[in-house]
Amino acid sequence: MSYNLFSSYLDFIQPLIINKKSFPSRLMIGTGKYKNLRQAQLSIKNSGASIVTVAVRRAYNIKLKGRTNLIDGLDWKKLWLLPNTAGCETIEEAIRVAILGREMAKRLGQVDNNFIKLEVISDPRYLFPDPYGTLKAAEYLINKNFTVLPYISPDPILAKQLEEIGCATVMPLGSPIGSGQGICSLSNLQIIIDNAKIPVIIDAGIGTASEASQAMEMGASGVLLNTAVAKSFNPPYMAEAMKLGVMSGRIAYLSGRILKQNRAIASSPSEGKFVK
Q: Which SUPFAM superfamilies does this one have (predicted)?
């Protein structure tokens, strides 16, 4: 990749491409757990995110109860909706919710939006995604022309299987959802990133901006997070920090870190030393 000192770093990091659609930001952000609507709106704006994920079941439940929905308070001409199947425990349930999610996107005016973040989580205690259920649901949805972004554990074999059946991305967790533990299973995540021919989005467990940067420095295509912003002391500021962390990590990855050495290497020249 050619680069000169007069190029914009925004040109250098390049947009994120998912199923031929281009997104300027590599940070995706969720919409849950905020204290109020205004805080959520400001945080999403500060994050600079292009893609915003919304739990379909939560959105429909709020509508049924007649309460104000965050969806109504965002500008969907500037943001891309990523409906998700959070809360679904079975293949059949995830498929039904995915269909509702596509209809939600259409009602917002995104008539060409077939994206779905696929979550099948049958484990209520640890919230690890069901690998078999995810694979089978993804296969069905792909055949129905969905652009499937599956949430998975950091399993390199499953990641490759999902790629091979036609998923648009894979989204391995950094650590258990909402835990704030940061990037765990580094070796497995690196294998997934190195072997993938589709974007790899690190999803869940990130707690602060340095961890978002770490994910990007590994070569991840993007980061999706929610709790780290929504539950921070100052969510709008943390959203800004996450934006900068993702950008910094991406630039560092493309720039290429120096090789690690087992000894010190002087940075000052040895030539021109004064000799007694």
A: ThiG-like
Q: Is 204 annotated as a binding residue?
A: yes
Q: Is 227 annotated as a binding residue?
A: yes
Say what the pTM is. 0.88
Supply 241's token pair: 């920090």
Q: How far apart are CA 272 and CA 201, in angstroms?
A: 50
Backbone angles phi, psi at 73, to 5 degrees: -100, 10
Is residue 273 flagged as an active site residue? no
Write out the two tokens for 148.
């499937």
Indicate the average pLDDT of the chain. 89
Name the CATH topology of 24-255: TIM Barrel (3.20.20)
Tell me the per-residue pLDDT of 176-203, one tens digit each, with 9 for 90 and over: 888 888 898 899 999 999 999 999 999 9
Q: Identify the three-state secondary structure at position 276.
A: coil
- Please identify which of the residues 20, 45, 65, 117 carries the catalytic annotation: 117
Q: How many CA atoms lie within 13 A of 55 on its CB side?
A: 14
Query: Per-residue pLDDT tens for 111-134?
Result: 999 999 999 998 888 889 999 999
Q: Give the separation between CA 117 and CA 19, rounded to whole angstroms.
A: 14
Inter-residue contact 149 to 168 (CB < 8 Å):
yes
